[in-house]
Amino acid sequence: MHSFSSAIRRVNIRVLFSVVFLGSLCYYAGWLSRWPAPDNSGLEWKDFEAKRVTITVQAPQATVTVIPEAEEAVVLIGSPTDAFQDNLRHDVRYITTWPGNGFTNEAMSLMNLIYLAMLTERVPILPAFNPSHFSGGSPDTEVVDTTFGEVFDVPRLAKELRMPILEWWQVKDRKSTTVDSLGCWNVWQAVMEHSSGPQYSATPGKLKIDISWTIAPKWVKLKPDAANDAQAKFTGLMALAFPEQRNRNLRTPSKSPLLGLSLPPNEQLLCFDNLYYTANVEGLEFEHDYSTAWRLVGKHLHWNPRIEDIARGYLRRTFGLGVDATIPPYITIHVRHGDFKGACHIPLDECFAPLSAIARRVDEVKEELQRLKDITAAHVILTSDETNITWWDEVAAYGWYRIDHSATAPTYGAWYPVLIDTAIQSEGKGFVGTDRSTVSLITARRVKEWHDGVVRSVKWGEGGGRRSLRKK
Ligand SMILES: *[C@@H]1O[C@H](CO)[C@@H](O)[C@H](O)[C@H]1NC(C)=O
């Protein structure tokens, strides 16, 4: 039983054994695995299932039960390296993307990436979240990226999806000064004819990856006749992961900005500019019941347990409970005003939904929870990016709670007000969100999926704000 798969270098193994004959020397040699088959362009997904292997050793006789930590299947050569290529295994294929449009949208892009990794049988490498939505914040706080794994429970995700999942910091040393060159597909310019380059992301610059772009073929566009529709289709991008369509669609790549290299799309590490606008049937697919990225990935993406713990602490303090008290069922409201002001072409107090309209939805949620699930949700928390103090005074008059974040950023970092708020929202039994907000959309799916909760959305803008109420 000494056959090691030479590919398996570091596997943490917990060994439970019972010695059958006293005095026997017991040992085990390892576990056999077909992972990864050296000539296999794909992965053997079933090899990521937790396995319990019982090995009976003839002499000396012993029964050894080996429980490998399956999710730790090794898909990198080792510790982070200066040049990322030095850490990629020749028998593994990878996929990555460069998001850059706000925390929730980046999370959605990465859910799309992981779904595409499934379709192409590649190992996804997840970049950190860019603090792009902090740009309007305090100028003296320099907010840094937060890793995917700091926010979400990556080990749990890998286990539930039965696939390995990597983060960029595991691949390339954060302190590296080496500039890597890489050929990637430019999807944006294939989909949006008038655009002059790929979608912007600060991520490649931070990782010191110098990209040469190849414009993807036009047929990756989901709706060829809709010039202003930004969606690319998953199956189109999937086909580019394989030699037939890749080779057929090569064309002169752009020169990389730093090293001036012209590189075709990398075959081992497949990369696309941004996967936010990727769908099967229609735009903003996460809204729809059939959404593949939600059903197969997003619903398995739980918060890092540390964030859940911190969020529970905030809930208890908000409700005035002791440190170990059970948290009562509650409803959250997410009101997004901040950047939505730009979408209002009528006075703001007519554009945004009045609190009375939100209160009506809250009452519906309460009633439905009581009637259908026998849950009394008396506690209501409102989270919002609104800064108007008068407005918050009106919120307080409804008896709704507000999370005190005055010490959050100094204690945990600038990301935490938003992470804690979103984690709190997704643990509620009910949720009232803002129409057209992706934060509200994803939270609503979490509340429904994880708690079989009750959700509502509040409209705003010319068709949905106070003005529409007046007309009635
Ligand atoms: C602040 O909120 C109050 C109450 O909703 C509103 O009447 C007022 O116009 C708001 N002020 C600004 C500057 O938006």
Automatic annotation (TrEMBL):
CDD domains referenced in this protein's UniProt entry, alphabetically: O-FucT_like
This protein's UniProt keywords: Carbohydrate metabolism, Fucose metabolism, Membrane, Transferase, Transmembrane, Transmembrane helix
GO MF annotation list: transferase activity
One Gene Ontology biological process: fucose metabolic process
InterPro entries reported in the protein's UniProt record: GDP-Fuc_O-FucTrfase
One Pfam family hit: O-FucT
TM regions (residue ranges): 12-31
Protein name: Uncharacterized protein
Organism from which the protein derives: Mycena venus
